[in-house]
Design goal:
Length: 144
């Protein structure tokens, strides 16, 4: 049986893993988006964005919101990061050219890992209820 202190230590580590992965991949994605936007503006001037670009910006905003929320609400942040991973999978499947799976592995999988680690941290940090100790000794059962 794992004690409460060990569960809290593991939850704290999983939270940090999720936060670090999320922040690194979000900064990487934002750098790519900003670089693409600057490149378009320098080569063509101010033009309207495409549907693919707008959708990618929306997915990036959801990812950034999930990263920020990971400091306060693990469950909500994990849901948002898993949605980001799925959104990137759909976006890559529709708008990307070749190697869809490889592109999703580089962009979507880190969000999925971060979301699942935050969800696991949330599960570990919840109080354990309903665990009965079954023993043949009557003294142990009476103390409960």
């Amino acid at each position: 049986m794992v004690n409460r202190a060990s569960r809290q230590r593991t939850a704290k580590r999983m939270r940090w893993v999720g936060r670090i992965i999320c922040l690194v991949i979000t900064i990487f994605g934002a750098t790519m988006l900003i670089g693409e936007a600057v490149s378009e503006i320098l080569s063509h001037g101010f033009i309207t964005t495409s549907m693919a670009g707008s959708l990618l910006v929306l997915i990036g905003i959801i990812a950034l919101a999930g990263c920020i929320l990971s400091w306060w609400k693990d469950l909500l942040a994990s849901i948002m990061l898993v949605i980001t991973s799925a959104g990137l999978g759909v976006h890559i499947g529709i708008f990307a050219g070749h190697n869809h799976f490889l592109a999703w592995l580089m962009l979507g999988l880190p969000y999925l890992i971060a979301g699942l680690s935050l969800f696991y941290a949330w599960r570990l940090s919840r109080p354990v209820e309903g665990h009965a100790v079954l023993s043949s000794s009557p003294e142990v059962n009476e103390k409960q």
